User: Fold Class I SAM-dependent RNA methyltransferase from Hoeflea poritis.
Amino acid sequence: MNVESVTIERLGAQGDGIATINGEALYVGFALPGETVAIRRTGSRGALVSVEEPSSARTDPPCRHFGPQGDRCGGCSLQHLDITAYNDWKKQLVNDALSARGIDADIKALITCQPGSRRRAVFSARAVKNGLVLGFNQTGTHIIASIEECAVLSPAIVAALPGLRKLAGILAHGGKPFRIQVLESLTGLDVAVDGIGKIREKARQDAIGQALTLSYARLSLGTEILVEARKPVLKFAGIDVLPPPTGFVQASTEAQEAMIDIVGAHLNGAKRIADLFSGCGTFALPLARQAAVDAAENDGAALKALDQAARHTPGLKPVTVERRDLFRRPLSTAELKKTDGVVFDPPRAGAQAQAREIAASGVSKVAAVSCNPATLARDLRILIDGGFRLVSVLPIDQFLWSPHVEAIALLER
Ligand SMILES: C[S@@+](CC[C@H](N)C(=O)[O-])C[C@H]1O[C@@H](n2cnc3c(N)ncnc32)[C@H](O)[C@@H]1O
Assistant:
């Protein structure tokens, strides 16, 4: 394949450099705006061969697995961009999504997260001819890049990699890839193996032995607990919560605490708050210090954890929980009649049906939390058209060096 030289014009939403060739966009990973790079072209993608004229914003990536010279670990896409330009790009992702819906917003400076602060990871693993590979998928492929270090994950998770590899080796069979979810809790690692299929009794017993030797707090197969040496504990603004295996929690404690503060301050003064897509209570529990809270969510185990934490925490205002599919059955305007504040934090698909009900309700303050600026913008458009004023938007870099960004939009009327 021929090597050709192109000039990169801008960064795309996935962190690729974009050049224009014959009027068509060409995407080049690990390339930056202003750079002239040598590439090998396949369709609309160019594989970086070398950087001929580097950008002044190019910097050395902190992780050896990153980039075309590393193992192309797909976890990060922008370690080679200096921090100021990187922060601007993240903020711009939110701005672009809102602008596409005609929303002019006061977007605050990016709230940053430190390297080594990610407490949750999902590794891919697979038995191979001469052993086992465990790491993250290369971008856009099912090839697993074996990981020895990671600049994003907490040091405790990085230190656990050799043990996780042993555990995966015990459970792996048949060469099919499977996942290992790891959450660093305050009482130790909460490890859940997923997508492994049926395992033999001996492998199960060996895995339990390994979990005890490695001092994990808990080991599960999917949601089935195999061994629980200690209950995994997290704190949401100082409130103890025992999350269920594989249940959603925010990726970084730093981001979680910043988000709790922002949401709590905005909904200050509300007497009755609905926390929709509540998970195990990241927002509901701290908010119950200031108002009665009705939490709704589709994961029964998460709601049970929320309910138990509420019952065991003294001084909270009343908390109710309801298991409910909010895509199919959003809280109606009638059900929101006594509610004056709402926080919603849906999965990437957003909260379109729920936003319509809130727009038509008497709710006066909303905090919309999202990990997907495109669906956030769509839902904000519904709320704004329903009479809400967008006060501000706060982007949060919960997914460091990746193309993902968290944001909280604060609205009132
Ligand atoms: C981004 S998480 C937020 C959880 C929580 N607010 C937190 O901060 O930990 C999204 C939550 O939506 C829940 N969820 C997904 N689909 C749902 C649905 N159709 N109805 C209700 N909840 C749903 C998930 O179980 C998950 O807990």
